[in-house]
Specification:
With 347 residues, the protein is of the alpha/beta class. It contains 12 helices and 14 strands. The radius of gyration is 20 Å and the shape is globular.
């Protein structure tokens, strides 16, 4: 069999995982891809990954999942899936496979480019489903909590079956299995309206002054390699600049208080986001089920499991590969690559 690359095409990032002929991980990469600025950004990102993997398109098979169809470059999801899939097929070859959500484990969950048009609703934003399908093969009962840069996916798996009555983003948002909060791109104003500043509760400005990346730089929990989005003001990603942006959220200048106070403010904001996600997790958590953490915000998942006194495992620990943190961050890309590999093994 050929090597395989799994691709997860988001609206802000492109994630890719390369597997060797035996299905083992060779390379993992995440690159910035501001897709809302044009399809040329996706082309550049894909070519960058191929160059970094030192591969030509003829040396590998490709499996793709996406959420990038949501960006406002496209009029609707159908148009987005079609434009992205056609762009990908042109760059990677016509035999590239696209992940499609299915309700039966017996159905093939990969489609060729010719079948994309009739199935765009089941291809759109299906990356969470691919992650859950793979996890179900490893741990048949689990609650997967994948906290990314922008969103959080919460997926219950019971006896190897994905328990989710809603597959679309609209249904999942209603059911709190898709929570629009993440550890990088989410504006602070979307997380909370009040914060504890020193010893006083203060209101938060409804302005795009700071993001959660600023918060997690100040708590020193955001690895530099995952900090790929632009800052709110275009200024550097230093602790001082992050504190300056966060201070604006509560009507202050950085100079008004010592750095320690701004770090305390960041920790309070962190706690507000953690509780927001924890409340959603509690709606889906069953007795005896292990919480599995993934994504750039997996450190928050561990904290939530501890708060709820539940057993916890990172996705990478289930693979006995905890050193490869990026693999958990790029879980959907790994999932489609591995599922494509397993599909070939069966056939």
């Amino acid at each position: 069999m050929h090597k395989k690359i799994g691709w997860d095409i988001g609206g802000a990032h492109l994630k890719a995982v390369l597997l060797d002929n035996n299905g083992n991980v060779m390379h993992v990469q995440q690159v910035a891809c501001p897709l809302w600025l044009g399809l040329d950004k996706l082309e550049t990102a894909i070519l960058t990954v191929l160059k970094n993997f030192t591969l030509s398109t003829e040396q590998v098979d490709h499996a793709v999942t996406m959420t990038g169809e949501l960006v406002d470059l496209f009029t609707n999801r159908h148009e987005g899936v079609m434009d992205i899939s056609q762009c990908v097929a042109r760059l990677l070859g016509g035999d590239v496979l696209f992940y499609c959500m299915t309700t039966s484990s017996n159905e093939d969950y990969f489609l060729a480019i010719g079948n994309v048009s009739a199935n765009t609703q089941m291809i759109a934003s299906a990356n969470w489903h691919a992650s859950a399908r793979l996890l179900a093969k490893i741990l048949p009962s689990a609650l997967l909590v994948d906290i990314g840069s922008t969103t959080t996916d919460i997926i219950l798996i019971d006896k190897g079956i994905i328990i989710n009555s809603g597959l679309s983003d609209a249904k999942r948002m209603q059911q709190d299995t898709l929570v629009y909060t993440g550890v990088v791109r989410t504006p602070v104003m979307a997380v909370t309206q009040k914060l504890l500043l020193d010893t006083e509760i203060t209101n938060v400005a409804a302005e795009y002054f700071a993001t959660m990346a600023d918060v997690y730089r100040l708590t020193e929990e955001l690895p530099e390699g995952l900090d790929l989005a632009e800052t709110a003001d275009g200024e550097p990603k230093t602790m001082l600049a992050s504190a300056r942006r966060l201070a604006r959220m509560v009507g202050h200048d950085y100079e008004d208080k010592p750095l320690q106070i701004w770090q305390q403010l960041a920790h309070d904001c962190r706690e507000k986001q953690r509780k927001q996600i924890e409340l959603a997790v509690m709606k889906h958590l069953k007795i005896g089920v292990t919480i599995v953490g993934a994504g750039a915000g997996s450190f928050l998942v561990g904290s939530i499991a501890q708060s709820l006194n539940r057993s916890y495992a990172s996705f990478t620990s289930l693979l006995n590969d905890e050193a490869n943190h990026d693999l958990g961050v790029c879980l959907p890309a790994f999932a489609v690559a591995k599922l494509a590999f397993l599909r070939n093994e069966v056939s």
